[in-house]
Design goal:
The complex is a heterotrimer of chains A (318), B (328) and C (324).
Chain A: H1 2-31, H2 38-63, H3 73-89, H4 97-117, H5 123-142, E1 147-148, H6 152-159, E2 161-162, E3 165-166, H7 167-186, H8 188-198, H9 200-205, H10 210-236, E4 238-239, H11 247-257, H12 269-288, H13 294-317
Antiparallel strand pairs in A: 1-4, 2-3
Chain B: H1 2-20, E1 29-33, H2 40-56, E2 59-62, H3 70-83, E3 87-90, H4 99-108, E4 111-115, E5 127-129, H5 133-148, E6 153-158, H6 164-180, E7 185-186, E8 190-191, H7 196-209, E9 213-218, H8 224-234, E10 241-244, H9 248-257, E11 263-265, H10 268-284, E12 291-292, E13 301-304, E14 309-311, E15 316-318
Parallel strand pairs in B: 1-2, 1-3, 3-4, 4-5, 5-14, 6-7, 6-8, 6-9, 9-10
Antiparallel strand pairs in B: 11-15, 12-13, 13-14
Helix pairs in contact in B: 2-10, 3-4, 5-6, 7-8, 8-9
Chain C: H1 7-32, H2 39-47, H3 50-64, H4 72-88, H5 93-117, H6 122-141, E1 146-147, H7 152-157, E2 160-161, E3 164-165, H8 166-184, H9 186-196, H10 198-203, H11 208-234, E4 236-237, H12 245-255, H13 267-286, H14 294-323
Antiparallel strand pairs in C: 1-4, 2-3
Classes of the chains: A mainly alpha (318), B alpha/beta (328), C mainly alpha (324).
InterPro entries (chain A): ABC_transp_permease
Protein name (chain A): Ribose transport system permease protein
Subcellular location (chain A): Cell membrane
């Protein structure tokens, strides 16, 4: 029964965000008719790919409760890309760069998982600490310089499109969301994650291996960060030590807008994907209308607060 | 209820957009993307660009990232290309950043070029330079040696470690020092990010670590106030001579107090003017001359066809004596 | 998640641990660099800690109450802007300082109102406000910086009372007032009760909303005070002002032993946490470690100290299990 209600709530969030998105596009294209074309779609999806992967990791971590949050995710993106490129520069075959990115991401995520589940450090603090370490190391190891040398075959994938859909988006981001959605809705793991987030004590009492699931989720979040790092390499053609800058806060914004409750146990990945698309579309639209970029920062802030207040008002009523 | 409130929130957002919306005009559009908005240097470039746009009969668009993030800059550049501006100048944050959009620009027929900070291998049409990176690095070292002598220890405080133009200048400073002044000791550059507070903290720590320090170089314009303030606070005016690539308005108080011995900079509004002029030339399909006399500019701009660099001219040196003659 | 150690013991242990770490760091740096253990350098470290100390004191209360404020650096920035504008208009420096502090108070009220009356989790609400405040600073500055401000405020702050710099007195005073409020008034008890469990505190008759709101106001006011010293020291307002302060403050406060789960507050720990961070940043630069590594050191310190505590907590749990 609870599951049923939760699903309906999720679909509602999804529907609202989709409606908002369409409204934004129509509104923007009315103001700037030239905006409405396939190139714009490619553009929006391209800039959504990295954020959507990172937001997915953030969402899983928050959903699983225990005051879960992953502030280090941006640092994970930077450091996995930089370490993979550094390994390549010191002789690792280039073909190993993609798996290396993902492995390093998983490893960095596993460190967070260990800190949270084994040493019982609160996620906010543990990942604040690793944010400093990961993003700081990415800068310090390279002295800030970008690292070039990404081969053409990676660029062909990173910059390629099929029917104006960017390849990284349809080959990585979209499948990741679909898998996550299926796991959350239809498998025991998904029910465990919601149960943990909803009420950790009863989850433990009914025998859910809370710590093991949580460790795995932090590891997966790191792995998604590694994937995002890989995409940044293939797309931009070079490794940049500050590529993940601000992603921790942007992914948090996307998760919250997407209807994920900060205390965990409520929300879905569909809403988060919709929220990412909405954020990037809004940004694109504002740029297209040549609105001063500083308004983006302000509008996203206001939108976040407005949506949460709206959410509060309605849940109170229910 | 929930839907209503959410939709209202978006409606409000869209309404805000509408206020800022400019109506389309038929004039050719020249856009300039700075590294960061909200700093006096790029504001002066914007002002110069606007003036040129009015003189030359083009529309000028100015848009850049809020916190110097390369991906945000890329997104802005991409959007300007999609929007169909005729010419697009970028002050590149990271030289390798521009590659993915350079192709898109070519396909769309947008004249993509760089200004203020270059990406040499990106296929850009021209680089509008304030001065050569080498000239800037040399000037600051030569002028500093004149004031503190050859036998001196100098600290370097830069901004973001990822800024490729700042790193190029530091590289040429080190080269100049090694080639000309073997006794001059340049310390490893320290990076202070983009806040004045961090710049002051790093500078004061550097001074503590090196009591025999004779000079400090503020490489990023955002580090100028912090470096100067650290010297004033430590009471080391006269003992340590600071310098940097700082605009007269930012450095005026510190030049007068003696914390800064001199600063090196070009007139960014002239650079903005030249940028828009270059964009107009590219749109019209006109070639650059070896020396271009441009109405509205104080001195002719030279063009080197081999490197594709359109040069504003030698940088100016500002001191306590001449600083009041400038306002930017 | 609940700490297994008795509360008092943890606080004392952590403070001793930090004190030992400070002493050890000072000793090592003094051996490694002849310029570390000098009066000049001590002044440098302390001067570079003033703003972070004031903001961290406010952050301690927020965390102990179960809140947080990631926008507090930009609050200081907006207050600094107010002071800077007034100084350029040749307003009396003490009036300008007062206006800056009041601006901090007012912004604390805004933040508190959004969190408490909007009933939004503090981390999300302040994340949203961070964007709004950033935009506000940009619009207020309009691209130009306020730089080379008149030194009137700087001169005013150079006053020493019985040989003690005014910054030290203000910090001691803030510390003292907060300490008294926490230990000797119902406010402290209520704040910790809210931090432990808002629901239980409300059931026990605590006016939780008032407590939460006033904690945000106190934190904002302290940010305003920090802005006064910021302008006094740097005489400059740029767009990115204060952007690193919030996370540094959270790190320092947690390092100091205040629990982010709420219900536990160590002011002394906060002060030691700030000093340890600044000593390490200064000392590492003095022995030649590039400044780019400072963030890594901050993170490693945070993780290191908490891991030690986590491990010892696990050991104690095991012992407790064995004896039972």
């Amino acid at each position: 029964m609870i599951a049923l209600r939760r699903m309906r709530g999720q679909n509602l969030v999804l529907a609202i965000l989709a409606a908002l998105w369409v409204a934004t596009i129509i509104g923007l294209s009315a103001l700037s008719p030239a905006m409405f074309n396939a190139g714009t779609l490619t553009n929006i999806l391209q800039f959504s790919t990295i954020l959507s992967l990172v937001a997915l990791g953030q969402t899983l971590v928050i959903l699983s409760g225990g005051a879960g949050i992953d502030l280090s995710i941006g640092g994970t993106v930077s450091l996995s890309a930089m370490l993979a490129m550094l390994a390549f520069k010191t002789g690792m075959p280039i073909a190993l760069v993609p798996p290396a990115c993902i492995l390093i991401g998983l490893l960095l995520g596993a460190i967070n998982g260990l800190l949270v589940t084994r040493l019982r450090i609160l996620p906010l603090i543990a990942t604040l600490g690793t944010l400093f370490i990961y993003s700081g190391s990415a800068l310090a190891l390279t002295g800030g310089a970008a690292m070039s040398g990404v081969p053409a075959w990676m660029l062909a994938w990173g910059r390629g499109t099929i029917a104006s859909l960017p390849l990284p988006f349809i080959t990585i981001a979209l499948p990741a969301f679909i898998v996550a959605g299926i796991v959350l809705l239809w498998t025991a793991w998904g029910r465990w994650i919601y149960a943990m987030g909803f009420n950790e004590r009863s989850a433990r009492l009914v025998g859910i291996p809370v710590d093991r699931v949580r460790f795995l989720i932090y590891t997966i979040s790191g792995g998604l960060g590694g994937l995002a790092g890989l995409i940044s390499l293939a797309w931009l053609g070079s490794g940049r030590p500050n590529i993940g800058q601000n992603l921790e806060l942007e992914s948090l914004t996307a998760a919250m807008l997407g209807g994920v409750a900060i205390v965990g146990g409520r929300g879905g990945v569909g809403g988060v994907l919709a929220a990412v698309l909405l954020l990037v579309t809004l940004k694109t639209g504002l740029l297209r209308l040549n609105v001063n970029t500083v308004w983006q920062v302000g509008i996203v802030g206001i939108l976040l607060i407005a949506v949460l207040i709206a959410d509060r008002l309605t849940t109170h009523r229910r | 209820m929930k839907d209503m409130v959410r939709i209202f929130a978006t409606a409000a957002a869209i309404a805000t957009i509408g206020v800022g919306a400019a109506f389309a005009q038929e004039k050719p559009k020249v856009a300039f993307v700075p590294q960061i908005v909200g700093i006096p240097y790029f504001n002066a470039m914007e002002a110069g660009g606007k003036k040129a746009a009015a003189d030359l009969g083009v529309d000028f668009i100015y848009s850049g990232p809020v916190d110097g993030n390369p991906v945000d800059q890329l997104q802005i550049v991409q959007n300007l290309i999609d929007q169909g501006v005729n010419a697009l100048a970028v002050s590149v944050l990271d030289a390798s950043a521009i590659a993915p959009v350079a192709e898109a620009a070519k396909a769309k027929g947008v004249k993509l070029f760089t200004s203020d900070s270059d990406a040499p291998d990106s296929g850009r049409l021209v680089y509008v330079a304030q001065a050569t990176d080498e000239g800037l690095g040399d000037a600051i070292i030569d002028e500093l040696v004149k004031r503190v002598g050859e036998d001196a220890k100098i600290g370097i405080v830069s901004g973001e470690a990822t800024a490729s133009n700042l790193n190029a200048w530091i590289g040429f400073m080190q080269k100049r020092a090694a080639a000309r002044y073997p006794k001059l000791k340049l310390l490893e550059p320290q990076y202070a990010g983009s806040t004045a507070q961090r710049a002051a903290q790093v500078s004061s720590d550097l001074m503590a670590a090196n009591p025999d320090l004779k000079g400090l170089i503020a490489v990023a314009s955002s580090t100028c106030p912090g470096v100067a303030q650290a010297i004033e606070t430590a009471g080391k005016i006269g003992q340590i001579t600071a310098t940097g690539y700082c605009s007269p308005n930012t450095a005026r108080a510190y030049l007068k107090s003696g914390a800064f011995g001199f600063t090196v900079l070009w007139d960014p509004s002239q650079l903005g003017y030249l940028t828009v002029w270059a964009g107009k030339q590219l749109i019209d399909g006109k070639a650059f001359e070896a020396s271009n006399t441009i109405p509205g500019m104080t001195s002719p701009a030279t063009y080197d066809a081999a490197t594709g660099i359109l040069l504003l001219g030698p940088p100016a040196i500002f001191t306590a004596e001449n600083v009041d003659k400038y306002d930017f | 998640m609940i700490n297994v150690l008795p509360r008092g013991a943890v606080v004392e242990k952590r403070e001793l641990l930090l004190l030992a770490a400070c002493v050890l760091a000072i000793a090592l740096f003094a051996i490694a660099s002849p310029f570390f253990a000098t009066a000049d350098n001590a002044v440098t470290i302390l001067r570079n800690s003033v703003e972070l100390l004031l903001i961290s004191l406010g952050m301690s209360l927020l965390l102990a109450m179960g809140g947080v404020d990631v926008s507090i650096g930009t609050v200081m920035g907006l207050a600094a802007f107010v002071i800077g504008r007034l100084l350029t208009a040749a307003v009396d420096p003490s009036l300008a300082a007062l206006a800056g502090i009041l601006a901090g108070t007012a912004l604390g009220m805004v933040t508190g109102a959004v969190v408490v009356f909007g009933r939004i989790p503090a981390i999300v609400a302040t994340l949203g406000l961070l964007g709004v405040y950033k935009a506000a600073i940009y619009l207020a500055l309009g691209g130009a910086w306020l730089s080379g401000l008149p030194p009137t405020l700087t001169e005013m702050l150079q006053v020493r009372i019985v040989g003690v710099p005014i910054a030290v007195i203000v910090i001691a005073l803030s510390y003292g007032v907060i300490w008294l409020a926490m230990r000797r008034t119902p406010f402290g008890l209520h704040l910790l009760a809210v931090g432990n469990s808002e629901e239980k505190a409300r059931l026990q008759g605590v006016n939780t909303k008032l407590i939460q709101f006033s904690t945000f106001v106190i934190s904002g006011t302290l940010a305003g005070v920090a802005a006064v010293f910021y302008i006094g020291t740097y005489r400059n307002v740029e767009m990115t002002i204060g952007s690193t302060l919030a996370l540094d403050a959270i790190a320092a406060v947690v390092l100091g032993g205040t629990s982010i789960l709420g219900g536990k507050c160590s002011l002394l720990g906060t002060v030691l946490g700030v000093l340890l961070l600044r000593i390490l940043q200064n000392g590492l630069l003095l022995v030649g470690v590039p400044s780019l590594w400072q963030a890594v050191v901050t993170g490693a310190l945070l993780i290191g100290v908490l891991s030690i505590e986590g491990l010892s907590g696990r050991l104690q749990l095991k012992f407790a299990g064995a004896t039972q």
